[in-house]
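Lay summary. Proteins are chains of building blocks that fold into shapes, and those shapes determine what they do. In this project we predict the shape from the chain. Here is one chain we studied, written as its sequence of building blocks.
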Amino acid sequence: MPSDELVLETQGTAVHLILNRADKANALTQQMWDDLPRLVTHAEQTPGARVLVLRSVTDRVFSAGADVAEYRENAGSTQWGLDNHARVTAATQALADCRLATVARIAGPCAGGAVALVTACDLRYASADALFAVPPTRLGLVYPQPDTARLVDLIGPSATKRLLLTAARMDGAWALRVGLVDDLVHLEDLDAAVDQVVAQIAGGAPVSVRAMKRTVALATAGVHDENDETRALLTEALEHPDHREGTAAFLERRTPFFSE
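And here is the predicted shape, written in a compact code that computers can read:
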């Protein structure tokens, strides 16, 4: 059964996906991993939604990552470990594939599987006291390959190795320097920074945002030339009513009113 440890809350053009297990440092249970793809789909279908914001219910901690107590309870069961590995991978992939733009709002420590979640987002904004750690080497585990690949794409192989091999806690300044976060601000300014980028994204045509999320993903995968998919994305945009509205609004020096 779905739990209340992940909560969706609509705030204007943003749907906030809230980690709501503060008493356990937002450690992610099997149920939470299972629920996450369904909640991403629900957010995508929310009328008027432009952006999904991933955040914690508390500013004391973003998330301790996967619930290690469950690993202890199932230690010795290879099948459970493989099943849970697949569960985590499916959750982070759902966030990476979200049709909405995705923004992670990170305050406090962010560890393990939670680093995979924020890495799967399009943008990451963190408070100055944020900390990042990926501890599978301390647990005798291996980080999921898709999550490792996203880290390498985002911060490069050397910084990824530092996170994965040392399991050290890295501060927000390091995260900003290597590109793990897009901006680092004082905690009291974090909401304003997130609200600003949400408003900037929401001001664009949804058909364009979706298409360019996809073209960036293709470029990351090594696609540098036009192909059938990129031409189809362009054709869809050119034929969409929002293209006519956007060009008219630009020339008339007014705010566009997009249809989706």
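What the prediction tells us: The two ends are 32 Å apart (CA to CA).
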